[in-house]
Automatic annotation (TrEMBL):
EC number assigned by the record: 5.6.2.4
GO cellular component: bacterial nucleoid; cytoplasm; replisome
Taxonomic source organism: [Clostridium] methylpentosum DSM 5476
Domain Helicase C-terminal: from-to ranges: 221-371
Domain HRDC: 536-613
Gene from which this protein is expressed: recQ
One Gene Ontology term of the molecular function aspect: DNA binding
Protein name (database record): DNA helicase RecQ
Amino acid sequence: MGGESQMMEKYQVLEKYFGYTEFREGQEPLVDSILSGRDAVGIMPTGAGKSLCFQLPALLLGGVTLVVSPLISLMKDQVSALTQAGIPAAYINSSLTLSQFRRALDNARAGAYKILYVAPERLLTDEFLSFACSCEISLVSVDEAHCVSQWGQDFRPSYLKILDFIRALPSRPVVAAFTATATAQVREDIVRILELRSPTLVTTGFDRKNLYFEVQKPRNKFEAVVRFLTANPNQSGIIYCATRKTVEEVCERLCSLRYPATRYHAGLSAEERRQNQEDFLYDRCPVMIATNAFGMGIDKSNVSFVLHYNMPKNIESYYQEAGRAGRDGSPAQCILLYGGQDVITNQFLIEHAGENEELDPETAEQVRERERIRLKAMTFYCHSSDCLRQYILRYFGEQGEPFCGNCSSCNGEFELEDITIEAQKILSCVKRAGERFGVKMIIDVLRGSENERLVWFGLNRLTTHGILKEVKEPRLRDLIHALILQGYLRVTDDQYPVLKLTRKAGKVLFQGEPVQMKVVERQEKKPKKAKTQPAGVEHPALFERLKQLRHEIASAQNLPAYIVLTNAALTDMCKRLPTTPAEFLEVSGVGQVKLERYGEQFLNEIRSYLEET
Ligand code: ADP
Ligand code: MG
């Protein structure tokens, strides 16, 4: 197939198989690059539509496209979505039996698939390698490519095998890499480690305008969850917890209150994980309580909230997890329930994780060092009273407006509280303790603790010992964080970070400069009305009927509803009210195959709705 006609055909493929008339931001240059034989790197946020950038070229290129992807759940999901759209695809990973594995390879060799998903550790096995050398591989697409980098939040040594695999091929295919992690180091590592050849680099904006961001500091997290679920009934969402134990607890308590909840973490049997994930995907249990083991590649398009019961260990993870909400572009809420204990839990996880991994001690320490820095940035997010969206965008190297109007900082009502006296006491305590201690110890001194370590250092003899006895620990933490954010204190990047005064602190201590802290009015007093009801659906009654129809179709085929058609597609249907196949084809997300499979049923439903009303 010539280059010219490929370029023209890409729009036809976009419509026919994917049901879209337009590319989203960033997709077209990546598709073009791959089609013209040039390597490509796509850095786009979760939900932006990275898959299409390699799936579409796969259909136009001769031979097979290999997609390297880290998680089994992801592969299964993507392969069923492709199959639904009429695209021949399969996956190869450890969930297959040996005979299934061989059958898949035989089919692939016979040209049965255009797209083959492969787990990285399979690439260099003899059987796979001999298959790969015997057929035409036109494109190797590396999904979640940040896994090659130690700077990324999810380094996987098995990803380093990808390069060896590519080198072992008789002729080098086009190589494309995709990730949602935008930091410069990760980007450089991807290009260097995968030996990409002057790739087309596309970085799209990281902003997801439909996501609402909020940080709450509730006294009781579980109550905050219940309050949220009550205010947002009948919605599907994920509640992320830091540990398996918390997942169990939250899930059990919600179930006992009759919420349709299920759970997911690495400690469950493979069978239970599969079952629970399906219950979630099929909306039998629309609320999923999970550790971060859940969700990479979960492309459930009607997730309308992501709650974090605990603060994650970095902004990358947070944005990725939160980004699983609102993937089809509908408004969605991302709420983080912060508690001071979260910082301590994460510090513990950083210091004690990864010891049995394949990293040498020096590398392991480097990785930990970077994780400490990232944790700090995450903690500041929770304490920031400035625009949360801007904070995230700046973290990823984008500018962002100082006021987004769609986060708890921008929308919340603040009071400015004068904290000059407390600030003076805290700063003076840090100084008298010799600027050698971290937040926890300074809080202990201020509160007048007599713990062993404190006494051993002689800190109980300081004049500032017990000087803020009456102030509770969480508030002291808030005060100290406010001082850090406003540049009166800084935290060192060491393994045991300590507080130091900045020059600015002198003004408060010696010149009486006033200090203020923004405090959000307590959210607990007045629960906000949800502002993300499926807004903008033009015929809600029809929408419900179409959803019901979709449910019946999906159940009959044992598929998740969103794989049949997304909520965005149903919404568009209610807007366009198609009554002919040609009109049906114009609905966003409807391609030729979906028209053939489901067109008649949906058209009938719409026609009878129109007749009745
Ligand atoms: P990512 O991998 O970047 O997180 P996905 O590839 O899973 O995102 O795509 C997210 C959603 O966006 C999917 O539901 C997909 O169908 C939809 N999508 C992708 N491209 C387009 C497009 N050009 N127009 C409309 N929707 C799209
Ligand atoms: Mg993806």
